[in-house]
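User: Fold this; tokens only.

Assistant: Input:
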Amino acid sequence: MQLEHLLGIEPLQPQQIKKILDLADYYADQNRINAQNNNALAGCTQVNMFFEHSTRTQASFEIAGKRLGADVMNMSMEASSIKKGETLIDTALTLNAMRPDLLVVRHPHSGAVDLLAQKVNCAVLNAGDGSHEHPTQALLDALTIRRSKGRLQRLNIAICGDVAHSRVARSNIILLGKMENRLRLVGPSTLMPSNINEFGVEVFYDIKQGLRDVDVVMMLRLQRERMDGGFIPSEREYYHRYGLDAKKLSYAKPDAIVMHPGPMNRGVEIDGEIADDLRHSVIQEQVEMGVAVRMAAMDILMRNRRKNTKETNI
């Protein structure tokens, strides 16, 4: 796998996705036995740059790096030179001069991580950029599905809620489509992308119809921070029409699994009892698989970096 960076799912081939998931599967099993016994990133410096707050994702990357033996540094972007007027490119050049091995970047603007990757000599991993992509979230969702269902092909999967503002939805649509699944997008018309017809998916505005006989129900967070208008009448009305409860879930297959990327708005996107129902909910497994997937992604990027550096020095 000749991956220099992991900036999105779109450039990945199905076989590359499978290799990342296979390695992540191994790490998931190892983490349950001995979470500290690995030195794949020993001697490497990992810098986490989060221009958007995300306690869950940042903690997951930090734990993943430390379990692989990396020296991990979290940069406080709220107090950085960016706040004093420094451009993203200047920050990238400054960091590049410090010679890190891996940058994990989360940024509110689409394309910012790709721009940064063009200016540095280290591996860059996209931890979410604007409404563009969130590749490791899609990979951890895929691993969770594969471990729960025993396969990642020919499943009926419903992605429900705020699709328009969700980079999680975009990355999952790309990945799950590449793996030959049948995808449905479910939600109000105001929360669907304007170019929805280009996605190659089925679209439902009635959640009961959209969930009928699906294997996987993937709920999305209602992203108020990205909305600049009246996309929904009220949270109460949204929950009534699109929030997942037992009655709506009954339209899915009896063994359907329920997912959510977090953080959850209970009583808005999902009923608390459904979120905690271990017969269906795999939300905690998603969190666990997040560490394993990020370990696998960073391991692969560092192997490639070391190989390329060795070949350059010959």
